[in-house]
Amino acid sequence: MGSEGERYRIDTGRQILPIPPEVYSGTILYDAKDPDATYPPIRPLRPPAGAPNVLIVLLDDVGFGASSAFGGPVDTPTAERLAGGGLKYTRFHTTALCSPTRAALLTGRNHHRVGMGGITELATSSPGYSSVRPDTCAPLAEILTLNGYATAHVGKCHEVPIWETSPAGPFERWPSPGNGFEYFYGFVGGETDQWYPTLHEGTRRVEPWGTPEEGYHLTEDLAARAIAWVRQQKALTPDKPFFLYFAPGATHAPHHVPREWADRYRGLFDDGWDALRERIFERQKQLGVIPENAELTRRHEVIPAWEDMDEALLPVLRRQMENYAGFLAHTDHQVGRVVDAIEELGSLDDTLVYYIIGDNGASAEGTLQGTFNELINLNGMPEIETPEFLTSQLDKLGGPESSPHYAVGWAHAMDTPYQWTKQIASHWGGTRNGTIVHWPHGFAAHGELRHQFHHVIDIVPTVLEAAHLPAPSMVKGVRQDPFDGVDMTYTFDDAEAPDRHVTQYFEMFGNRGIYHKGWCAVTKHRTPWQTVGAAGVAFDDDVWELYDCTSDWTQSDDLSKEHPDRLHELQRLFLIEATRNNVLPLDDRVFERVLPGISGKPRLVPGNRQVLLPGMGGLLEMHIVNWRNRSWSLTAQVDIPSDLAAGASGVILSLGGHAGGWAFYLKEGRVTFCYNLFGIHRTHIRGDQPVPPGTRQLRIEFAYDGGGLGKGGDVTLLVDGATVGSGRIERTEPLGFGYEYTDVGRDSQSTVTPDYPRGDNAFNGRIHWVQIDVGDDDHGHLVDPTDVVRVAVYRQ
């Protein structure tokens, strides 16, 4: 790490970023040929000598008990290999949810302190929940870039405020440039389709290189991009260390994986999740990742026993777990490709690797029976999927036509030996994630366990210490807040070192807890698979539990009645930490936080009208005026060429994709509206005759039934104000279609309607404009072109 004198000189020179340039103070001579007219050479910015490369791998939605490195049933040889040459941390913690964990990891501050008390879609105007990282908390990538590192983020970014995610920006909080990374390739949002992802390179939308039929899969693509970046960086600037943040969307739902990977696990889970928990628990003891005296926590009564599941559903449930296991194994293999590439460059021994196996516990958002389309439960309509339907789709599960998620019982098993799952920040099942650190040139220990208590906020201080860099006092003119995390290097060569991270609060959706010097007080407030509606319990009525975590590793023995005074002390400490970190006011709302009018977050599209123009693309549903659960209309002014003998065809506007959405288009000249209800049922409503050539106004009107969310409505199709077709949609999706692109003039690769093959649906006429009106009573009337918002039109 260098001598104290070296550290002192480094600190004083690098606490203010960007590093102030040296100013020449010598004599200015007239002629550059004069022997005395010399200046110091320009020196490229580099970190201090000995600064390592840094690779941080963050998987998504993997429980403590999933990976074979921590006793789980899924083969993860890359994790085991790195652990064999490094250290396994058995008491490492996350925040219980993705956006908050990622914000905490990248800043070294508690998630509410950087505005990320929930996912970005549920942001509110409260400081702890705004999703807006304050400039006083510069992220690690920015600090390292300003100290001379090459930096890249490949994979998932779920930290951009949703009103800043459109092609219009602003981009201050995108990975590049806002979060300090020099390069970004991946997706912005909570999830994406692994077969048909929504991708960006920098801030520019890009298309996947191929289709599933051609061999495309997102995780494989991300690994290839990471490898290409690190090879180029080392080839061009071999003396410059890199920081690569590799964050695949796996294994977040949808659980998409090539069939051959799922087939590797065929039959291994036939005896169900209760038996699987027992096997994992014994294996964990054998590996030493839990102590011999640890107790396996009970399965709560709200999680069904395997023997109580419908016999007809068992083949579906088994395949869900086989599919998930294949997904995790496939992901670990892609991580291995990246590690292998770094090793081939001769750089692995000089690379500080963090392999964090999950950004929270396993996800229980897939309902008690699992789902063929995870958007169904997220929209609060799980009753749509009957056992008969799930059985009929069994052969498609995991493939491009599905968007699957496994049952709650499997998630609970993947969090063995702990209680509960993702979202439940009170218990270790939601927050304890197996983590591996590998750095051969940084410490001598290998193949050992570390049991010190740590949290994801500890990574930034550790990386800076390893790189001989100080915590900056000022970044780009803004004074910086101190880090909340502690440096973990004290554990690298000392397995018995006493804990230095002694206090940590946890909170998510009202589920909350506090850890302090071996004790923890916790309370579960709401259940994760209840995605819509209030928790139904007042915060003051929550029941708190108390655990001695020095002797009770798994939170299995509640001591609240034996030690009421200690419980009260910890409850007060939680309130102190909550106040200090912007946790208050507690917020257990879900649907209300989606709505800008209630939550206080900005609307990207204000008002009840929006005009879209040809050439516009790369839009998500959140970039479109809010038309849900209300009446709306869409009007398009188009030119139909006279030489189209078979009639005009192609998509005018679509929202969503194969898992749910709608499309407005022409097929064989007839105007058509297709509503895709979760991929289960598609309703087609068509005009009764082809649209004549010339300049035409095509219009759809949807008259919502009202009376709540997700109701149906009547559809009317019009050409130049005259009705040409009508029909009815019996149910609608109340909340969202996911992260599919919206384009004017074509459908996405993940198509809404089977009327067109994927990628073969561009409109063959000319679109002047498309206008969406919500709450519009002007049914059946032409839209005056002068009433359309006038902006520059890109001509097709």
TrEMBL record:
Keyword tags: Calcium, Hydrolase, Metal-binding
Keyword Disulfide bond belongs to the record: no
Record-level Gene Ontology MF annotations: hydrolase activity; metal ion binding
Pfam families: Sulfatase (PF00884)
Gene3D superfamilies: 3.30.1120.10, Alkaline Phosphatase, subunit A
Keyword Calcium: yes
Residue intervals of the Sulfatase N-terminal domain: 52-468
SUPFAM superfamilies named among the record's database cross-references: Alkaline phosphatase-like
CDD domains attached to this UniProt entry: PAS_like
Family of the protein in this entry: Belongs to the sulfatase family.
UniProt protein name: Arylsulfatase
Organism whose genome encodes this protein: Rhodococcus spongiicola
